[in-house]
Every structure is written in C-alpha cells, then in structure tokens.
C-alpha cells in the first residue's frame, strides 16, 4: 500500500540542495492564497526588493523565475540572443557546457574559451577571444562552478565585456548569498541563480536580474523570444512595476513564501556576515581535512568556500564512502561530476548547511568511514584542527 512520504532528516552537504532552514520550511506550510490576491502582490514586491539586496542591484527587472536554475539560465540566453549572434562562452566545468547548448539552441554561435576543470576562467584568454571576435555580442561565464568548486573573477570578466560593448550573462547559481556578487558595481547584465544553494531555500526557483542595457536589448528584439514561458516581456506583465498584474502563469505561491523568508533571513544576517560565515566554516573544514591527510582539488586562491572539492585518496571506494555516510550518518556529500567523477568529492557548506556543527559532524563521519575502509589517514587530528580555526587559535 502506498502511504505518505516521510523523508529522513539528512544533513545536506553536497552540491545542492542544501539544508533548508526550519524558518523557511515553516513559511512553506502557511495557507495558500491566490496568485493575484492583493496581499500576494505585496509579497511579490517585497521579494523583488529583497532580491535586489541579495544581488546588490537596483535593476527593476529582478524577479524569481518559477522554475529551477536551469530555467533562469535559459531565460537569460533566450531573451538576450537572436539567431546569428556570436557569444563567447567560457567553460571550466559542467555548466559552461550547458551555456554552449543554450547558445546553439538559440541559433547563435558559441566561441568557446576552454580552461581545465579545476582552474578559474582565464581573463587573458577571454581578452584574446574578444580580440579575435570583436563582433561578439555576449560574454557568458559561470561565477561559481559547482562541478569543480572554482570561483572565477566575475568583476574582471564583466568589465572586459563592457569594454567590448558586449553584454555579460553570469551564472550565479552557487554564488548568490555565499560569496561577493555585486551586480551593479561589476556591470553584470543578465544574472541567474537558484534557491537551493546558499539561500537556504527549497529547490525550484531561479532568481534573475537584468541590467538596463539587457532590458534595452530585450525590448528591441526583431525576433520573438523562442520560449513563451520565459519571454521576459510577457513575464513582466505579471511581475512588472505597476500594481496591476495580469495572469501569465500560476506562481508557485508557497515556494515564494519560502523564498521571501529565506531572503529575509539573508538580509537580517547581512551579506557581509553571511560571506564571512561561509569563509570561516570553509577554513575550518579545510584545516580538518588536511589534518586528516586529505588534499583539496582546487588551488587556494580559486576555492569556493561554499563548495569544497576534495581529492579522493588512492584506493578508496568513492561510492562506498558516500553510501556509508548517507546510510550510517544521514550525511550527503557530492560525487565528482564529468571529468572529475571518481576523482573528487564535493562537500557543500552552503547557506543553512554552512555551520560549525556541520563542519565538525562531517569531519567525524568522514574519519570514521575512511578508517573503516582502511584508508591511510591520521585519526583524531581533524577535530582539533577545525576547532583551532573556530576558536581563533
Ligand atoms: C552553476 C550551476 N548552474 C546551473 C545549475 C542548474 O540549476 P538547477 O539544477 O536548479 O536547474 C546548477 C545546479 O546545480 C549549478 O550548480
């Protein structure tokens, strides 16, 4: 007999979704009201304002797309690109490859700038691509590459796009709320994110923001946007500036309560404090992992504090370790993706999951599971090393 589903209480320390704050789960369970109810329209306005804070922007076209991060990605590409456009796409992991797919499906041409997985996007190589392709209309790159745990220099890349009269499309799915992201100051034109990473919210929504230059491009398109659902001109009829809102689609009302609550939590904590918390917990985790004898896969200057790629020690059974962590400790960590499958683990410290308690629990569990596998690690050192970071010693 099929019955109600009661998931276990896991600790989510993979590449996302991350743990959802109980405050956010509480908001999700509040009574559903109509998506055109005047009170809901007020909530929508607050969400837009809170998103502007999170993105550090005054862009009026800032809203949550009613679908996961991949839809935010697609929204940026289909609205800004037209058939025949040339786009410089940076790839240093899985998600740059998805950008290429989006460009090609829009009938545009992708000029690929490839960097090794685990390396940041090379600003010099992008500058060379602009020199070789001065007609490029758009530069697209991933700020925080979740597949490898690497941060690229979004400020420098956006500046380069501006210098060459190109618009920038920035994937901030894993960066929003976890590391600095200054949309207006950096001059980013179309930025998309997700709710399931550093916002401590449920998966399934994609915050996006478009600069005035991007809006200008959208309003002066010759071709209709190929996607009806993601056409920003139509979506604006529902999310637009005036208080008169027209039906476009039925908004995920309760998910938006959740998003509102999570953004409120971010504003209460403050971006600076949230970034410092992510950095601090990351430093403690790395200290613990290294004391155990493990090594990080990414060079220090390019590491994401919210996504820690760890080299899997020689002879260790990757799936066996992840399975034991889940089964015996209710702890989820991520496998390597693509070229890094079987080579790295990805330990997330995102949003509500980024806590001192989770760092210590993860180190304890990993040490126990690796020891049981007979891995050559130092036992008992990790807690002390992480503890030293926490106590500032
Ligand atoms: C960098 C990046 N871009 C895009 C996505 C796609 O987001 P979603 O899985 O919510 O569709 C992800 C998801 O992990 C991601 O990490």
TrEMBL record:
Keyword Transferase: yes
Entry-linked InterPro entries: Aminotrans_V_dom, PyrdxlP-dep_Trfase, PyrdxlP-dep_Trfase_major, PyrdxlP-dep_Trfase_small, SP_NH2Trfase/AEP_transaminase
Domain Aminotransferase class V intervals: 33-336
Transmembrane domains' residue ranges: none
Pfam families: Aminotran_5 (PF00266)
Modified residues (N6-(pyridoxal phosphate)lysine): 197
Binding positions for substrate per the UniProt entry: 346
Assigned keywords, A-Z: Aminotransferase, Pyridoxal phosphate, Transferase
Leader sequence segment: none
Gene3D superfamilies: Aspartate Aminotransferase, domain 1, Type I PLP-dependent aspartate aminotransferase-like (Major domain)
Gene Ontology MF annotations: alanine-glyoxylate transaminase activity; L-serine-pyruvate transaminase activity
Swiss-Prot/TrEMBL cofactor(s): pyridoxal 5'-phosphate
Keyword Transferase: yes
BP-aspect Gene Ontology terms: glycine biosynthetic process, by transamination of glyoxylate
Sections of the chain in a coiled coil: none
Xref: PANTHER family: ALANINE--GLYOXYLATE AMINOTRANSFERASE (PTHR21152:SF40), AMINOTRANSFERASE CLASS V (PTHR21152)
Family: Belongs to the class-V pyridoxal-phosphate-dependent aminotransferase family.
Protein name: Aminotransferase class V-fold PLP-dependent enzyme
Organism in which the protein naturally occurs: Seongchinamella sediminis
């Amino acid at each position: 007999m099929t019955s109600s589903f009661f998931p276990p209480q896991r600790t989510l320390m993979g590449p996302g979704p991350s743990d959802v704050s109980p405050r956010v789960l509480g908001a999700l369970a509040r009574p559903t009201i109509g998506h055109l109810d005047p009170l809901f329209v007020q909530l929508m306005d607050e969400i837009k304002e809170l998103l502007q804070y999170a993105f550090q922007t005054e862009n009026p076209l800032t809203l949550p797309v009613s679908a996961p991060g991949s839809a935010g990605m697609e929204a940026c590409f289909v609205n800004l690109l037209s058939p025949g456009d040339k786009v410089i796409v940076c790839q240093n992991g899985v998600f740059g490859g998805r950008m290429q797919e989006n460009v090609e499906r829009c009938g545009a041409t992708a000029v690929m700038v490839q960097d090794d997985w685990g390396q940041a996007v090379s600003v010099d190589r992008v500058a060379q691509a602009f020199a070789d392709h001065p007609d490029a209309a758009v530069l697209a790159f991933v700020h925080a590459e979740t597949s490898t745990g690497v941060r690229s220099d979004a400020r420098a890349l956006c500046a380069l796009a501006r210098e060459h009269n190109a618009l920038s499309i920035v994937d901030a799915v894993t960066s929003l709320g976890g590391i600095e992201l200054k949309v207006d100051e950096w001059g980013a034109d179309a930025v998309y994110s997700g709710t399931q990473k550093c916002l401590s919210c449920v998966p399934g929504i994609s915050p996006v923001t478009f600069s005035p230059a991007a809006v200008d491009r959208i309003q002066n398109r010759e071709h209709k946007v190929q996607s009806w659902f993601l056409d920003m001109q139509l979506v604006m009829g529902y999310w637009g500036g005036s208080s008169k809102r027209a039906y476009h689609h039925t908004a995920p009302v309760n998910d938006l309560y959740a998003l509102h609550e999570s953004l409120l939590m971010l504003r209460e904590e403050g971006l600076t404090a949230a970034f410092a918390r992510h950095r601090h917990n990351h430093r403690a985790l790395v200290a613990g992992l290294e004391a155990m004898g493990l090594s990080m896969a990414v060079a220090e200057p390019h590491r994401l504090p919210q996504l820690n790629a760890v080299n899997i020690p020689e002879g260790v059974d990757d799936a066996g370790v992840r399975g034991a962590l889940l089964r015996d400790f209710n702890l989820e960590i991520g496998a390597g993706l693509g070229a890094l499958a079987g080579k790295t683990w990805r330990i997330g410290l995102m949003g509500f999951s980024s806590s001192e308690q989770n760092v210590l629990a993860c180190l304890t569990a990993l040490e126990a599971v690796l020891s049981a596998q007979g891995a050559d690690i130092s036992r008992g050192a990790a807690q002390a090393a992480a503890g030293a970071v926490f106590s500032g010693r």
